[in-house]
Amino acid sequence: MKKLSERGGGGSRRDRASVRPVTLSIQELAAGGSGIARTEQGEVVFVPGTASGDVVEADVDRSVRPARGKVLRVLTPGPGRVEPLCAFVTSCGGCDWMHLSAATQQEAHAVLVQRAIRRTTSDVALPPLRVHPAPQPFGYRTRARLLAKASRGGSRRGSGRGVHGTSGIGVGYRASGTHALVPVDRCLVLTPSLDALLSELPDLLVGATGEGDVLIAAGAGGRPVVELAWRGELAPSTWQQLDQRVAQGTWAGARVALEGVNRPASFGDPRPVIQGADGAPLLLSAGGFGQPSEEGASVLARRVHELVWLDAPSRPLHLLELFAGSGTLSVLLARGPNAADAADGEASLASFVAIEQGAEAAACLRENLAARGLSGKVVVADADATPIPPRVDVVVLDPPRGGASGAAAALAASSARVVVYVSCNPATLARDLALLTASGLMITHLEAVELFPQTSHVEVIVRLARRPARAAALS
Ligand SMILES: C[S@@+](CC[C@H](N)C(=O)[O-])C[C@H]1O[C@@H](n2cnc3c(N)ncnc32)[C@H](O)[C@@H]1O
């Protein structure tokens, strides 16, 4: 097996003093993506970039807890290991599981989700976990957040290929666990049009000083939108090029926020647009949240909708959505049941209310509903501090990584009959599920959606339903 270069930077003097090569057998994968090994002395070592069953030679840094290994050589590959397709895989922090086959990634995600939930709900019956495979394992990302840096002393004109020393501008991702820039000019998980954009960005930024975040995404008509949050100065040529590209229709829009300047400058419409799960365009807030892929978001939204209407209710349903964003899920939820769900003529939607804290996302959500002729109330509020009205039957929530402990407490005290919890973080989901299940809600469905292929990240959907006795007592 070939020698692997080290992930991240060169390490401190203290790191180098405390490492020595050892042979490690990787037993399993941990949340966060690293493999876990035990030394002969029983010491636990976390080793990034490994697969279960790998035997590796690694430097071990014991100055951190748990000790951390850096792979020098793979001596025997584990059964799920594949050759990563990306040239940047060992330096870039993005695709920490690209060295695992798709089947191995799915199995490992399933184990991590079940283990996290078991940890907090050991006394609760769990249904078998269903995995929704990734519609596309590569070329799926319709958005990416990049880092761009001008080399010290400013950048200069030239043919930018994403690295310092040509255009003087580096554009890429952050190295795993650090703020260091890993310049890239190809990214295999981006859609082809965003991948092509990577090599244009260094030239766009020629003459800049400082650094910034660059959000690239699909915009109106599939054309790119670019959002720059820059700490430093941009050259006049950057402003001219942004103006030209949008005026000529090559890009749908751009937005630039300079540090210390209150209002960002906009060109065209900088809001990302993907195809919603209903097939119509879905507008997302510029710089705000969006699911990583169009197709993955559709799989997620369709399944959440199905789980809401699983038991066709005998009376019109009051539906509340918390952490609604720009409406990835809402555009299906606000439609009510599908024709099949309403076959008995009784399933229907009495009311739909969506709560979102971001004013720009809420405005997009209103536009998305209006464009579809859907009614629903969109409230800008803190969903983690919102009481659940007694008439609400079903609540869908999709909080950020920190979870929703406030909303979980409100749901536990509510009479909501069904809760559909969507999460990108099994640890905080598990914490919140402990509260929900203790209140009498039973987990009826546990599902993982492969929304972030090639990475250790996974999306989870949990449906909970109230035990009939408590529901009756509370209603
Ligand atoms: C994981 S995203 C989900 C959005 C949407 N379901 C989707 O799929 O696009 C979480 C959303 O919650 C919003 N948010 C974060 N904290 C919030 C809070 N305390 N109250 C309401 N919304 C919040 C964020 O702005 C973001 O739009």
Overview of the structural elements:
The strands form four sheets. Strands 6-21-22-20-19-16-17-18 form an eight-stranded mixed β-sheet, sandwiched between helices. The chain has a seven-stranded mixed β-sheet with strand order 9-8-7-10-11-12-13. Strands 1-2-3-5-4 form a five-stranded mixed barrel. It has helices at 13-17, 102-120, 192-198, 201-204, 236-247, 294-308, 330-333, 359-371, 405-412, 426-438, 468-474; strands spanning 21-29, 35-38, 44-47, 55-61, 67-76, 129-132, 143-150, 169-174, 181-183, 209-218, 224-233, 253-258, 265-268, 273-275, 281-283, 317-322, 349-356, 377-380, 394-397, 418-423, 441-449, 459-466. The protein has three domains: 13-81, OB fold (Dihydrolipoamide Acetyltransferase, E2P), CATH 2.40.50; 106-136 and 291-474, 3-Layer(aba) Sandwich (Rossmann fold), CATH 3.40.50; 143-271, OB fold (Dihydrolipoamide Acetyltransferase, E2P). Mean pLDDT is 90; it is low at 1-17, 157-165 and 470-475. It is globular and about 65 Å long. 23% of the residues lie in helices and 29% in strands. The longest helix has 19 residues, at 102-120. α2 runs parallel beside α10 (426-438) and α9 (405-412) packs parallel to α10 (426-438). The protein starts with 12 loop residues before the first helix and ends with a helix. The protein is of the alpha/beta class and 475 residues long. The protein has eleven helices and 22 strands. The chain binds S-adenosylmethionine.
